[in-house]
Design a protein that fits this description.
The protein has about 300 residues and is mainly α. The chain has eleven helices and four strands. A hairpin with a 4-residue loop joins strand 3 and strand 4.
């Protein structure tokens, strides 16, 4: 007579469930691996193809730090026209349009000391970001363009140049904001008394000769319209713009009172400019980053220590 099968106990049931889960997970990853073998794998910010096609630095990118810093300065001064960076710029501005004299003017949005603040927390991104991330934001916002590849030649060179402006300064990572010790300080004015119409008169009298009566730019960069910074830029915050205008404008002879700077900023930032939609400024996922190296094939094996 066949013996009646006993029901599974609790321990046996748990073991059986674990075995089934393990088998299912193994099957899933096996299918996933086969799919990656066929299509390549996108992981993180760089696309790695199984065949070995890895986005990397161009072979003519400088190897020495001094040369990279010099390249970064060239890109900084000529961002909209430089062959490496112009494809990522969507307006008529360059880095030095806001960060005057190559980022060294103490009253012109200086970048001296900025690199010491990174990595830093950014409330806008709700994350800790690097200096390259912050530079990339400027491409998408102030330059109304596209984020260059992280780890690629444009951001590496610009990072090297901006970091060189903080050479020898102590590290001071910022847990509150991605800004350095010399960041713009807000004006002490009554913001509720801002008058954009008075700002318009002041603009025509003191600013239009360089920036154009319609903000289109002449000697100076455009301040509104399709060739200027978009609504996501730092300068699109009129209080930031007011602090900049007060400290640095008119160029070479800053002489505006805080109230005048406030009113001019209220007028300028009330004018039309491109809308910022983040998704329109991000590249495809496979173009978000590169492997920062020219060496794409390396093998190292354990060797006996020979003193």
């Amino acid at each position: 007579m066949r013996r009646k099968q006993e029901p599974l106990g609790l321990t046996q049931t748990i073991l059986l469930a674990l075995l089934v889960a393990f088998a299912g997970t193994t099957f899933y990853f096996a299918l996933n691996y086969l799919a990656l073998r066929e299509q390549g794998v996108s992981k993180g910010s760089a696309t790695v193809n199984i065949s070995g096609s890895i986005p990397a630095l161009p072979q003519d990118f400088p190897e020495s730090l001094d040369q990279t810093v010099a390249l970064g300065k060239d890109i900084f001064m000529n961002t909209k026209d430089h062959p490496l960076s112009k494809a990522y710029v969507g307006n008529a501005l360059s880095c030095t349009s806001c960060h005057l004299n190559g980022g060294t003017d103490p009253k012109g949005l200086t970048l001296v000391g900025t690199a010491t603040a990174f990595p830093a927390y950014s409330a806008r991104e709700k994350a800790v970001i690097t200096l390259q991330n912050r530079i990339g934001d400027c491409f998408m916002r102030s330059l109304n363009g596209t984020l260059p590849p992280l780890g690629g030649p444009v951001l590496v060179a610009l990072e090297a140049y901006i970091a060189s402006l903080s050479q020898g300064m102590p590290l001071h990572m910022n847990p509150k904001s991605p800004t350095g010790l010399n960041a713009l300080k807000p004006l002490s004015v009554d913001w509720t008394r801002a008058d954009a119409q008075r700002g318009k008169s002041l603009y025509q009298a003191k600013c239009a000769v360089c920036h154009g009566a319609e903000g289109q730019g002449q000697v100076g960069p455009p301040l509104w319209g399709p060739k200027s910074y978009n609504a996501g830029a730092g300068m699109a915050n009129w209080k930031n713009l007011a602090a900049f205008v007060h400290g640095a404008m008119p160029l070479g002879n800053p002489n505006l009172s805080p109230d005048e700077a406030r009113d001019i900023a209220a007028y300028v930032d009330s004018q039309p400019r491109p809308t910022f939609r983040l998704q329109e400024h991000l590249p495809p996922s496979g173009e978000l980053g590169v492997y920062t190296s020219k060496v794409l094939d390396e093998v190292k094996e354990v060797q006996p220590v020979r003193p």
